[in-house]
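Researcher: Go.
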Amino acid sequence: MELAQKMFLLAAEEMNFTKAARRAFVTQQCLSEHIQKLEKRLGTKLFLRGSHLQLTDSGKALVSTLQQIQHLEESLQHRISEIEAGEIGEVRLGISTTRARLLLPRFLEHYHKTYPQVHISITLGDTVQHIQLIKAQKLDLILGLDAPPDPFLEELLIGREQLMVVGTRSFFSQYHQGTTDPAHWKTGDTLSLKEFRSFPLIGNREHSTLLELVHSCLRENHLDCPQPISISDIGTQIQLCQLGHTATFCNDMLAYPLIREVGKSSKDPLLAFYVAGETHTMRSSILRLKAQVRPRYLEDFTEGLLKYMKEITNKKFG
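Model: Structure:
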């Protein structure tokens, strides 16, 4: 707001030029000149000058308008201060659908208590897709799996995840050709896929990090598994496996909570097995562009998410 408008508001509050000039630390003549210039510019009288100063209708309208402008300027300054202090902005995160549903809600609830004015924008998809987006500066962070080395990206390691195969007890029994008793199988056991004949699988529809690992595992165990259903959401894959007609592969970070969630009351429970001889572990990590200046809210989000994910990784079997 310009000086003449501020002088006018003071005069309108005091209804006395002398008192208003004193508050503005100027002479009465200086204040009067500012108001006269304002009246000339607007082409109207703002005060009725007599024994008692009065606002004209135009003056009343200007008071109302300037008060709104004053409020907006104060709000803008407050918002700028918050931005400069790193307390307001946006975090753009890339993550898979199932991880977002299972892992994010509790963390986001805690983060928003500290940064209630930071907007979280979440893009669902695979790590490979998200890497293209972050390099185009359309994402700030990726919660990814087995990201390929990239000179432009910094990788903050969360932990290692292992491959598991998931299906019902009766399903695995149907395709089992080994000597172990299926009645004794339990989630977390290690089974050799060489003891099974080829079985139908549910898998990802699009190319993904996990899909590459699954195909490699099947080749090593000489299995040619048909894939009658393709859907790129592990949660839905597990739910379909509950029907007893297919199996799927999943990393252990998600397998444990998903089978607990889906198979609580089933007479034919879902089981998740580690694969004998499968030594490859998947790197779970947070990815971000190197050498960037980041606001405080983004640094705190990154550090908080890294700590939270490490805690979950350490207790994933609980």
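Model: The radius of gyration is 33 Å.
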